[in-house]
Amino acid sequence: MAAFFLLFENDRALRRERVFRDRINPLDRYTDVDLVARYRFPRREILLLTDLVNDTVQHPTSRSCAIPVCIQVLITLRFLAKGDYLSEVADLHGVSVPSASRILHFVCQALCRQLDNITFPTTADELKRVKDGFYKIAHFPNVVGTIDGTLIPIQGMSGDDEPNFICRKGFPSINV
Is the pTM of this model over 0.85? Predict the structure, then answer.
């Protein structure tokens, strides 16, 4: 029994203290030009997005170090804008990687629900109208929607397929 208490006391001594990271708000630190370069949105738009998802993302807590909604939106925007590793985005904003992962999920869901900007034709008449519209524009039959992509630079390759991967800007890339 004495060994159990000794083991219990040692376990308590081995527990780490909670670490409270310094979270400097990038909105206070950067100009609009810097914010656009880092997050692809100016301050005004970031604040509008923050207000849009505030009720959905903010967690009621009795703890003293909840992550502010503004920081949550900035974490999401940085990850989506730069494609950084989640660990780098988390370190940059002073949160843990698991917290950044949860934040990314919650904020993306909240933005999708609030913006509701992707719609699909639901009736046969709407479907026909959309098909006719695409056919009038580009003579593509039976098209009901499009997806815009982006060019991702890749390492150049050699061989017969090399010209297939050169984009209009002159570098090897894939369209995703």
Answer: no
